[in-house]
Structures are given as structure tokens and as C-alpha cells.
Amino acid sequence: MPRSSTARSPTPATAPSSTGRACRQRSRPPPRAAPGASRTPMTAPEVSSADRVVLRQREGGGGMDPRMYLSALRRRWPLIIVLGLLGAAAAFFYDSTLPTLYKSTASVFVSTQRGDTTSELVQGSNFAQANVQSYAQLATSPVVLQPVIDELGLTTTVNGLASVISSDTPLNTVIIQITVQNSDPARAAMIADAVTDSLSTVVEEISPTSADKTPAVKMTQIAPAQVPAAPFAPNTRLIVATGLAVGLALGLVLALIWELLDTRVRSEKELTAITGLPVLGAVATGPSKKPGWIAMRSDSHSMQAESYRRIRANLEFADIERAVRSVIVTSATAGEGKSTTSLNLALAMAERVGRVLLIDGDLRRPTIAERCGLEGSVGLTTVLLGKLSVADAVQRYARTVDVLASGVIPHNPGQLLGSSAMAALLAEVSSTYDFVVIDTPPLLAATDTLGLAHATDGAIIVVKYKSTRRQQLAEAVGSMRTVNARLLGVVFDRIPTPKAIEYYSYHAKRSDGSPDLPASTPDDAEETTAPTKPSAAPQESPAAADVESDQGPEATDESHAAAPTVTRTKKTRRARSDVIHTSDAGATVVVES
Questions:
Q1: Which sequence spans correspond to the domains of the chain?
Q2: Backbone dihedral region of 250: left (phi > 0), alpha (psi from -120 to 50 degrees) or beta?
Q3: pLDDT tens digit string along 339-373?
Q4: Is the peptide bond before 234 cis (omega within 30 degrees of 0)?
Q5: Rounded to whole angstroms, what are the CA distances from 464 to 340, 458, 489, 543?
Q6: What is the reported pTM?
Q7: Contact indicator for 571, 513 with CB cutoff of 8 Å
Q8: Which CATH number fits domain 102-223: 3.40.50.1010, 1.10.10.10, 3.30.70.1130, 2.40.37.10?
Q9: Is there a contact between 291 and 339 (Cβ–Cβ < 8 Å)?
Q10: Which residues form the Polysaccharide chain length determinant N-terminal domain (predicted)?
């Protein structure tokens, strides 16, 4: 929407007179694109089938898709890592509470008395192998363990001692291995030897005897117990690894549940997939913690200010069939930044198209007048009720930006906004101002916005990062499409600064701490004049004098002959200071760096 580069006389601005302050209407052509620029309509970025599948899974349709796991890992990896570390720490703490145990093993060989014939030897061997399992079970019986307790003077019971003793027989052998666990390595070996001796005594007593009273079964210790050098329990590595694995698994489960339950919009792909609309711009969180920070006024070279200029530029190419000269700015719910976007967009538009009117159409919770430091009791409702004209009700906010506050909050805001008086007001201001921005109530809070949808050139929906729910956004867009409203796009508001740098990384800080200006282009050339005659203007806010604007004059004398001509020159990158020349005809020529 830049102006033509040829010199022309500025069009006189509307200014209320001192008696009656009648509104002088004027006609302006719709904003045009820069010369040579191709006006290609903005379309929503293409969303891959994978993104649509992920969104569908989040909405609860169909089974779990593998991409859901990847999305959960990418978004919730801190939760998974933290729970994994907590699991490992808990396991390590549990390990430290366990007693240190040593184990020692003694082995005995079971044999029978030798026979005189081969058949006797075979029978004896079969007898030993058949009864070796029974002898191993005797190792933990009271008849074996009680003598051990008495001999060693142990303070434990038979059952307590049996719980730390295990006996095993390797397959197809007549060997019995007795293993003892104890917190003292020397005592573990001593108990193992004592149990083997006691078992040998008991087996010889209960085994058959020969004619000479010799026991038929004999046990011989073949491997005495050794004092262990290192404990076998607890296994710290295994316990910590198990805790880590359990924590990671729990973290993944919680991440998937969180991903399914958290339906907040977090990316442009989600915006596009849900709404089917292009993203006009992404605005980073401002440096001020105070809500409603006006970037275009507080820091016109900030990243946030460039975001609103990006929105302005995208609106130029929103539609090649129909120019956009008036928009409504709304959101799905309250607190998403629609009023801040409306105010900054109006200031950004004033840099291009000239005179801009900002209307506070939120008659339920108006905030524009308070943020601008203007009187809020006189405004839109005053005009709609026929008490004042538009020219009498508007207030000056910036050099080329007027504000029509909400006025007194009515009892029937929906009826006022949908009345014929509102339609007539919009028709009047559209012919008087170059661009009109209307801040409207949230779509899900009231139906007031739906009545204004057809009275303007389009609607912009503001979506707050990680605040707006997907269901809320889909419902809001659906309500606008139900009334066949013209949706221009969405604005992604208050995204984290690291994400915003992906869009506006060009605007780095110079060594002196001030933001670096973007490279100048012929389309960025702006104009200024020195009016030969001051003209009346709408009521001006106290802070209006502090606003610097590079636009054309707000008002000139009705005689175009007395108006100075403006010669525009392109910006140069080599100079950073403005050079002002005055031509013989009295025109002001500005060479901007």
C-alpha cells in the first residue's frame, strides 16, 4: 500500500471546525502495491499429511500414531529426562539402604561304600544319584542347622539361618553345593563349612548300614568355603539402571497423556491445519511485562514492531480482487492480545496509507481509550445514539491516527453494533480515512463481532501462543464461516523470543545497543512536508506530541494551490543522517538514510 513515487500535492485531511466541527469527507483511492510488485494472493501454507494425522490424533480420532510418540518426545523431553533422573536417584537411595551381603560356597561329594562286584558298584552309584536331591534338601532342615547354631553360637533361629542358605545339585552329578549369605564374609565361609559337616553327619546317621555297622553313604568335602573378597549384593549398577528405565518409561507415558490432554496451539502448522488460513505474522513477547505494550510507539525498530509491519505487508496481498481498507480484529477468547494488535496495526498502517482510524468496537470490555490515554466516555456509542457526529467524537492519538473510543458501555451492545447506524458510520469513515481498524469482542464470548463481519473488508483472528485451545479456535473460525465472513488470516501472538528470532533474526543489536535498521528499499521511501498553514485537528491525546511520524500532512488549507509539493527521494545505505533541502518553490525535500 505504498504511495506513488511521483510528486503530488497532499490531500487535505478532515478536521472538525470550531463551530459544529462538521466532518469533511473526502475520497481516496484504495491503497496500491508498490510499482512492479506482483500482487499474488496470500494462501495458507500447505500442511503435510503427517501434520494432519498428528492433529487428528490429538483431537481424539483414531488410534495412536507413531508420529504422536515423536511429537511427545520433541515437546516433552524435559519431563521424560527429569523423571528418568528422579527414578535413578530413587533407585540409588534405595540401594544405599540395603545391607551389604557376601556369599561363600562349599561343595561335598556323595558316594557309597565300594562293593566287591561290578553289579554292587553300579547299584551303589545309582543309589547315590537317586538320593542326592533328598540329601540337598536336608541342608536347610532343623536336624542339620540346629547343631550349627549351637556349635557357632549364632543368635539366629533355624528358620532365619535357613533363609540365607541355599543348596544345589548340578545336573547328572552327585555333588551338593551349599551357599551361605552373610554380612560378614568370614562368617559366611565358616557357616558354609559347618553346614557341610553337619549334613555329612546326619546323612551317615540316616543311611543304611552294612553288617559291620558301616554307613552305606559317605559325604566328602571336595571344595571348602572361601572367604569372599567382594560383596555380591546389592548390585548398584543394576538397581540404578532399573530405576532409570522405570523413570524414563513413566516419563514417556506421562508425556503422551499430557500431549493428548494439552490442546493449546503451539505452532504455525497447527494454526494452518485448524483454520485453513494464512499466518499474517508472528509477534514475539514484548520486553515489558505490562500487558498492552505498544511496540510501534515505544520502540518502532524492535522485533515486535517489525512483526506488525509484516502483518501490514501481508494485508496488501491478502486478495488481488478486492483491496483491504477496513478490518476487524478479534480472537476466540479474551486475553489473547486483540486490542494490542489492533492498536499496533493501526500505527503500522499509518506509516503506509496515511490517515487511519482505530475504533474500539468492544463495547463489553473496552481498553483502547485507557491504553491510549484518551477519554473513553465519548465515542462509538455516543455517535450511534445520535448525540455527536463522528468528527466531534474522534480523538487524535498519533499524527495520522485517530481513535474512536467505545463511549459509555450500553446495555445492548450487540444491537448497536448490528444497527443501520453502525453501517452508516462505517461507510462514512471508510470514505474519510485511508484505513479503518476495529477492535471487536472475542468470538466465543459474544456474537457482536459476527454482525460487523460483513461491514468491513475482512477479519483478522489473533491467537495467543500456548493459550488458545484448538477446539476454541476451530469453533471461532467456524462461527465466522457460518455467516460467510471474509477471513484474511491469523496473527500468532506472544510467541517466545527464540521462536520469533527464526522470523526476524535480521534485526540484531548494533554495537551501540540500538536495533539495526533493515536495508532500505525504494518502497520504504517516506515523505514529509512543512505545512504553510496550520489546520484544525481532532482532539489530541496528551502523548500525541511525542509521536514521530513520516506521513503526509494531517490537514492543509482548502486551496490546493497553497499546499507545498513533496519531492521524494530514495533512501541511501551509506548515510545515516537525514539531509533536508528546500527547493525554490518552498517544497521540502527529505533524503532519508
A1: 1-27+519-537+545-593, 66-98+235-261, 102-223, 264-508
A2: alpha
A3: 999 999 999 999 998 899 999 999 999 999 999 99
A4: yes
A5: 12, 20, 14, 29
A6: 0.58
A7: no
A8: 3.30.70.1130
A9: no
A10: 69-152
